[in-house]
Amino acid sequence: MRENKNKDLRICIAGAGMGGLTAALALAKQGFNHIDVYEMAPDLGFVGAGIQLAPNMARILDRLGCWSDVVKEAVLLDNTSVRKDATEEELTNVDLTYIKKEYGYPHMVGHRSSLATSIYEACRREKSITFHFSSPVSELLSFTPSPSIRISPRSDSGPLEPYTVTSDILLAADGIKSLIRTALLNALPPSPSTSVSASVSASIIDTGQSAYRIMLTREQIASAAGDNSDLLALLDSNTATRWIGEKRHIIAYPVSNKQIYNMSSAQPDTNFAAAPSATYTTRGSKSDMLKVFHDFGPRVQKLLNLVPEGEVCEWKLRVHAPLPTWLHGRVALLGDACHPTLPHLAQGAAQAIEDAAVLGVALGSLPSGASEASVAGQDGDGDPIERALRGYEGIRKARAERMVEMAAASGRALHLGEGEAREQRDREFREASERDAAAANGDRDRDGDGKGVGGKRVPDKWADAEVQRMIYGHDCVRVAEEYFREGNGVAGDGVGAEALGV
Description:
Layout: E1 10-14, H1 18-29, E2 34-38, E3 50-53, H2 55-63, H3 67-70, E4 75-76, E5 79-84, E6 90-95, H4 98-103, E7 108-111, H5 112-124, E8 129-132, E9 137-142, E10 148-151, E11 154-155, E12 158-159, E13 163-166, E14 169-172, H6 179-187, E15 204-217, H7 218-223, H8 229-236, E16 239-245, E17 248-255, E18 260-268, E19 281-283, H9 286-292, H10 298-305, E20 313-320, E21 327-328, E22 331-333, H11 348-364, H12 370-376, H13 384-414, H14 420-440, H15 465-472, H16 476-485, H17 497-500
Parallel strand pairs: 1-2, 1-14, 2-8, 5-16, 14-22
Antiparallel strand pairs: 3-7, 4-7, 5-6, 9-10, 10-13, 11-12, 15-18, 15-20, 16-17, 17-18, 19-20, 21-22
Helix pairs in contact: 1-5, 1-11, 2-11, 11-13, 11-16, 13-16
């Protein structure tokens, strides 16, 4: 039998975030022998905050053999409580226990660091994956047939001698500040209608929003002065609580086996207004944070007052317009490099992981002889690698961009000010709770129409049953396997909206 030399293709991944780590692992599981990951940070580190572990993410990581490690410290969510800002009146309470039955995995939450570490440790068990830390990409030199990048490594004592890396495939998981995205879009031919380079679509969009990300330990809460039993009750619960107000909200839930209470906010940006576009984080002021949420209820005030001075950090929330393409030659973008999103749908990491999983299937489905085509320097429709990457884009682009749109829409609904639109939103929240009350008396709706316990329609898109069905019910690996099994290789062929989950 002829040896399949495809597995000796040299694959280079820029970035060791969720997308880059999962892409490396997915490709290793497909049998590729030479996978190099270049990351600018010196290590993964204990960074980040809470993260929601939705079934569409869990399904992928379970297939890749690392989900069991993720859940060791995760917390199961039974419900989400949506409350008014000042009075803390509960507008609705959404059951999440039905999710495991419907989608095969429960809805869980955890620490971002635990998720990254679990995927990284699974990668380290694969001999084909090599990590290069403190090794940022400083230049993209060529796209095809052998993508080349310049690496400018650093050590504790300063910069080291740059060097060039040449591969057969380059995957850019280098985040919203992606250098590779900028180079890729600058290399595209001008638009026929405008004669203007497509690179204008790479510009960052200022959302006018920023976020505080806060983590309070059990010890901090328990040892604080006064009666904090109400806060410990939040930490001991299996509930995600969202407090919503005009142009602001906070979502909070326990993580790390209920040893940490995670809080994430969204509010109008004031501290970044004059900052350069490259600035995404800033040291925050506790007094400013308290002023932003001064009119929120007593539990929020107590929680925010527990944040130590000097430990307030604020993130700028930025996105960019949908890109004309994620591909050029044998270079492909994934994750935040091509579809950064607002956090209101809790799908940023999950969508990067979906990208990675589909790339694994796409490249793992290369026909015999793809490596010889690489040597021959075929391009366009004659290059099986480029066809595979176009298939990846066809499967992923519309779905990911739909998630970005929905996250923005959910934020707009949550942040309504006084007026008719807000009154209508709150009525919809209350009607959902009334349907729950009816269900509790025997009128339980489990027929999938989205209007009963564990399946209701609510203005908060993250908790909406129809949106959950679109997101959690989508099996991107199955879709990709069916697509490539049929011999497709051109973006969009045979991939309808229903298959894409949009």
